[in-house]
Amino acid sequence: MKNFSCNKYVIPYTVLVILTSGTSFQLVVGQSEISPVLLVPMAQSGESIYLAWSGNDTGIPEIMFRASNDNGITFGEKINLSNSTTSDSINPQITASGDNVLVSWWENNQTFQEPVIRISTDRGNNFGPILNLSTNDTLETWITYYQSNT
Questions:
Q1: CB 13 within 8 A of CB 5
Q2: How many CA atoms, within 13 angstroms, populate the side-chain half-sphere of residue 117?
Q3: pLDDT tens for residues 15-31?
Q4: What is the share, in percent, of the chain residues with pLDDT greater than 90?
Q5: Taking the alpha carbons of 92, 138, 122, 24 in that order, is the dihedral positive or negative?
Q6: Exposure pattern of 82-121 as b/e (b: 16+ CB <10 Å)?
Q7: Strand, helix or coil at 133?
Q8: The pairing of beta strand 2-6 with beta strand 79-80
Q9: Where are the alpha helices (DSSP H) in the chain?
Q10: For FRET with 56, which of 7, 82, 88, 128 sits at 20 to 30 Å CA-CA?
Q11: Are strands 62-68 and 48-55 parallel, antiparallel or unpaired?
Q12: What is the dihedral of CA 103, 36, 4, 88, to 10 degrees?
């Protein structure tokens, strides 16, 4: 059992992996009597399972990522996708198809709230740059990155 800090309270939690339909998994960070259930956004493609969540290891919420390429038997190292120092990285969403993994989230501080995305074309081993979805240069930045890495 680990402790989860939530505002002023330290709440014990456990992690459960639930088989929901054949090969679909749902990771649930469990609850005590006073805490809500937190669902970790997850995607699956073939034997690969991908997780993304907002962690607070540095004192600022960051988007963390882990991948398994053996149906969840083992997972690779945790990767910090956001590395934000001036904003909170929150509300991650994740999807996968073939070797492609897309993780989006919101960068939020007192003066702005912007949607961003990072894309992997190699099953989560490497990710392209953070793309700001509210600017016009996003597609050009992604095409440049993709062409130089394929």
A1: no
A2: 15
A3: 444 444 444 455 555 54
A4: 48
A5: positive
A6: bebeebbbeebebbbeeeebbbbbbbbeeeeeeebbbbbb
A7: coil
A8: unpaired
A9: 138-148
A10: 128
A11: antiparallel
A12: 40
Give 36-70 as a DSSP string: --EEPPEEEETTEEEEEEEE-TTSS-EEEEEEESS
β-bridge mates for residue 101, sequence order: 96, 120
Domain boundaries, the chain: 1-39, 43-148
Q: Which of 73, 21, 82 is nearest to 49 (CA)?
A: 73
The answer to whether the beta carbons of residues 19 and 72 sit under 8 Å apart is: no
CA distance 121 to 100: 4
Any residues with CB less than 8 A from the CB of 61 and at least 6 apart, and which? 54, 55, 88, 89, 90
Query: And the tokens for 68?
Result: 């398994």
Residue 69 has a CB neighbour count (10 Å cut-off) of 17
The per-residue pLDDT for range 57-110, each reduced to its tens digit, is: 778 899 999 999 999 999 999 999 999 888 999 999 999 999 999 999 999 988
- β-pair type (113-120, 131-132): antiparallel
Element (H, E) at 83: none
